[in-house]
Design goal:
Radius of gyration: 21 Å
Strand content: 5-15%
Shape: globular
CATH topology of the largest domain: Butyryl-CoA Dehydrogenase, subunit A, domain 3
Order of helices and strands: HHHHHEEEEEEEEHEEHHHH
Bound molecules: flavin-adenine dinucleotide
Number of domains: 3
Number of helices: 10
Distance between the termini: 46 Å
CATH architecture of the largest domain: Up-down Bundle
Oligomer: single chain
């Protein structure tokens, strides 16, 4: 009988090999052409990577959160655009269904998601409601045994490529607004009439991931496609984001780790003033700081993951992990470009992609400023 450590090693090794052979060699081309590699995601799905944390009773791998982060780090080091697509699927819609789905919803959606047959995403943000997501305006109105959704979501990962989206809309009425308590979550198959993804965004980084707005035009759903309780959608989204932010932590670590690996190789090969640039102390100090920050970011994320697995509330720690790892990714990739000099600024060299991919980790799933607000609230009486 394999121990939990054996399982962790096997799963992480499988992810590492897959990333090395089937993702990394193609990532630059996908980035250049903004190609979303659904076939590769499907292959990962067949191996179980779309059900990493889904309990085994729902046909998932039932991995602990530390193993999940280790897998995401491997995939992010190869291509964080692909990592974010599967990270969101595993963290947010999956967590929502595991925690709040009915038995029928789990049969119908969660199990096929875990088997890799359905790719999911989640749409909370709107053009006027980003950090202040509770101010969203898309509206569902009850019509007998159905709900009818109208509105527009913004920047949803996988919106144009997923089979299923978890969509947060208002279910309170204009005459009796209830703020965050007026928001509910709906399970929306993307082939529903009235679901229209916009043209994919033309992004600075993560260019192979699909990010798009969604028009909701009289989208009619049976009442049993509401997830959990009416008015609890914002709470479910925040729970999902705790898991999501840990994943972004691993994404940041993966990007930074790759930047360090490439920098070490380059600094050993690149010669100036008759010696390898790694022989200059100024270069060595940069490498030392890069490695130290990466270790610290990984340790913080894994510590938060261990708390989550122990059943503790991790809102504070997930924010710390996301904040520190994303700022580490940005800092380390900036140093990597400096170490590569002029070559670092060129598209032919991989560090500029890492730098572009790193930036968004400081923005999505709550900006660094929002993470600091969450952390400070937990530490002070301003909750
Ligand atoms: C590539 C990508 C993928 C995304 N994927 C998804 C997805 O799958 N689903 C989804 O729902 N959303 C997604 N988003 C949206 C993302 O979560 C938002 O962009 C993010 O929450 C920030 O919102 P905003 O862009 O409206 O910025 P704003 O909220 O307008 O913020 C602008 C600036 O003001 C600062 N600010 C705002 N409020 C405060 C405050 N109270 N105190 C201090 N500073 C503040 C912010 O930190 C930021 O620096 C994605 C975005 C991107 C770029």
């Amino acid at each position: 009988m394999p121990t939990a450590t054996d399982v962790r090693e096997q799963v992480v090794e499988l992810a590492r090999e897959f990333a090395r052979e089937k993702i990394e060699p193609f990532a630059a081309e996908w980035d250049r052409t903004s190609h979303f590699p659904r076939d590769v995601i499907d292959e990962l799905g067949k191996l179980g990577f779309l059900g990493m944390c889904t309990p085994e009773e729902y046909e998932g791998m039932g991995l602990d959160t530390i193993t999940y982060l280790m897998v995401l780090e491997e995939i992010s080091a190869a291509d964080s655009a692909l990592a974010v697509s599967i990270g969101i699927h595993n963290a947010i819609p999956t967590t929502m269904l595991v925690k709040h789905g009915t038995r029928e919803q789990k049969e119908r959606w969660l199990k096929p998601m875990a088997r890799g047959e359905l790719l999911a995403g989640f749409a909370l943000s709107e053009a006027e409601a980003g950090s202040d997501a509770a101010s969203l305006r898309s509206q569902a109105i009850k019509d007998g045994k159905h709900w009818v959704l109208n509105g527009a979501k913004a920047w949803a990962t996988n919106a144009g490529t997923a089979d299923l989206m978890m969509i947060m809309v208002r279910t309170d009425t204009p005459n009796a607004r209830r703020g965050a308590k007026g928001i509910s979550t709906f399970i929306v198959p993307t082939d529903s009439k009235g679901y229209k993804p916009a043209k994919p965004e033309d992004k600075m980084g993560l260019r192979a991931s699909n990010t798009a707005g969604i028009e909701l035009n009289d989208l009619r759903l049976p009442a049993d496609q509401m997830l959990g309780d009416e008015g609890m959608g914002f709470v479910y989204a925040m729970e999902g984001l705790d898991a999501g932010r840990l994943g972004i932590g691993a994404q940041g670590v993966g990007i930074a780790r790759k930047a360090l690996e490439l920098s070490l190789k380059y600094c050993a090969e690149r010669k100036q003033f008759g010696k390898a640039i790694e022989d200059f102390q100024a270069v060595q100090f940069k490498l030392a700081d890069m490695a130290t920050r990466i270790e610290a970011a990984r340790a913080l994320a894994q510590r938060a993951a261990a708390r989550k697995d122990a059943g503790e509330d991790v809102t504070l720690y997930a924010s710390m992990a996301k904040l520190f790892a994303s700022e580490t990714a940005m800092w380390v990739t900036t140093q990597a470009i400096q170490l590569f000099g002029g070559y670092g600024y060129m598209r032919d060299f991989p560090v500029e992609k890492l730098f572009r991919d790193a930036k968004v980790t400081e923005i999505y799933e709550g900006t660094s400023e929002i993470q600091r607000i969450v952390i400070a609230r937990a530490l002070t009486r301003h909750s």
